[in-house]
Amino acid sequence: MKYDVIIGLEIHAELKTKSKMFCACDNNSTGKAPNTTVCPICLGHPGTLPVPNKQAIDWTLLIGLALNCQINQHSKFDRKNYFYPDLPKGYQISQYDQPFCFQGSLAVGDKEIAITRVHLEEDTGKSFHPQGRTDTLIDFNRAGTPLVELVTEPTITSAEEAKKFCQAYQRILRFLEVSNADMEKGEMRCEANISLQKKGSWQYQGGQILPTGKRTLSAKVEVKNINSFRAVEKAINYEITRQASALDEGEEIIPETRGWDEKKNETVAQRRKETAADYRYFPEPDIPPFIIDQAWLDSLKQSLVELPPAKQKRFIHQYGLKEESAEILTNDKDLAAFFENTVSEMGAWIEANGDDFERQDKNAAQMAANWINSELLKNLNTDKRAVADLKMTAENFAELLTLIWQNKINSNAGQRILEVMYWEGGDPGDIMEKLGLEQLDSEEELEKAIRAVISANPKQASEYKGGKLPLIQFFIGKAMAETKGKANPEKLKPLLEKLLME
Ligand code: ZN
Ligand code: MN
User: Fold this and answer.
1) What mean pLDDT is predicted for residues 101-121?
2) Ligand 1 centroid to 77 CA: how many Å?
3) What is the DSSP letter of 470?
4) Which numbered ligand comes closest to the C-alpha of 37?
5) 374-396: pLDDT as tens digits
6) Which ligand sits closest to the CA of 92?
7) Do the Cβ atoms of 432 and 413 come closer than 8 Å?
8) What digits encode the pLDDT tens for the residues 147-192?
């Protein structure tokens, strides 16, 4: 392609504070009837006064700190004026020239994506256009929900990078426990500014895209209404293709806002883009400015938890995990904690059994990581359940892994026990006894099973004896079936090899 792709993101995230941004209304309207979590303040009645939510400001600053932002010691709210049916005041309280946080960064793989600003504002209500009706319904429950807006520098160069940025940001919001950031529920909303420029026709200077020489830049287009990670990628790729073919035809790109149509898989023109001047920003006269001093920031820094990138590095170093394995485990705060609790409990179980075990034993940790990433996560993803919904404790899960670790059961039996524990919880030792899954260790019984298998498969047995050694896997499988998966694999294989050669 003869164009460079230039993408900047604006991401809005709803904070899950108890009350709304400027009033005491319940901020959680899930399952509540329309227009029930409202009051004169969030409905914009004349004469009412907004009172800022301290928790929302703290959390915005915390997000800024997590993203390595500078914090504005002097900050304020501003009015952003525009008319929209679900914006009852006729303006949005937002932040203009003194956002709480600015100049941060967030890594996507090896690349640091620069963040222009992170500011705090209020959400609007929601309009509904029921099918078959000509009127519009409005629900103000969401009006006044604290909304954090993050703006990146235009340094993202592909749809995939944009998607990964959104995912990395979502992880941080969830680790900080300030937002559920579920895109499907609109708790996190992504807008992308996309332009294509002829190679060599532009430069990036002082945070701006500037033309080189006397050339002119191609306009950027804003894409809204993107409500999943998949849609982030699809919408941007669609727009790249659309703009490239327009430019190829010698057409000019119109600076406009386009909406992503999930059903048609295309972006659709919505309106010409507003500029800052259209909004007539001015300082919010009803809220005094803020002074954010060092003591305030210091106390926030203390509540800053270990974030996914740091946790991933630590898991690799401390537990000897592979990068990919560590990444999966640190995707979710609860999953990461479940893993670490499992490893520590495994140490306790093994020590309680009188064995020698170093708590940070890397083999046990890798075993735990493998079981969580393959077996457990597979089930959770299929059932769309969260780690918090698990009936099984890390202690019981660790006990199960210890049974396998100590060769009391094989991994087949482990999987069957896990299936019971996953749905019902419970003690793996009890389940093992109930299901009769205790590992078959007795040489006598193993021999009996092997002899039965050999006499049932005389052709393969003589082929093996004739030198077709890979057939050993066939016999292992048969013998496992014969013992209902209970045979100790470490004893089974050598015994099979011996008896097959007789
Ligand atoms: Zn209210
Ligand atoms: Mn905004």
Assistant:
1) 95
2) 18
3) G
4) 1
5) 999 888 888 888 898 889 999 99
6) 2
7) yes
8) 999 999 999 999 999 999 999 999 999 999 999 999 999 999 999 9
Q: What are phi and psi of 388, to 5 degrees?
A: -65, -25
Strand spans (E) along 123-261 = 126-128, 137-139, 146-152, 188-198, 202-205, 208-211, 221-226, 256-261
Strand-pair partners of 19: 26
Give the Cα separation of 437 and 443 in Å (integer). 17
Token pair for residue 462? 């003589």
What pTM, to 2 d.p., does this model score? 0.83
Residue type, 190: C
Ligand with smallest separation from the Cα of 279: 2
| Distance in Å, CA 121 to ligand 2 centroid | 7
Structure tokens at 86: 């679900």
CA of 30 to the centre of ligand 1 (A): 16
Give, as residue ranges, everything with CB less than 5 Å from ion ligand 2: 149
Q: Which residue has the tokens 């560590």?
A: 326
What is the Cα–Cα distance from 479 to 452, expressed in whole angstroms?
Answer: 9
Per-residue confidence (pLDDT) for residue 381, from 0 to 100: 85
What ligand is nearest to the CA atom of residue 93? 2
How remote is the CA of residue 36 from the centroid of ligand 1, in Å?
A: 10
pLDDT 10s digits, 193-250: 999 999 988 988 877 889 988 788 999 999 998 999 999 999 999 999 999 999 999 9
84 SS3 class:
coil
Which ligand neighbours the alpha carbon of 141 most closely? 1
Distance from the first to the final alpha carbon of the chain: 68
* Ligand 1 centroid – CA 378 distance (Å): 42
pLDDT in tens, 410-459: 888 899 999 999 988 889 989 988 888 787 888 888 999 999 999 999 99
How many whole angstroms from 145 Cα to the centroid of ligand 1? Answer: 9
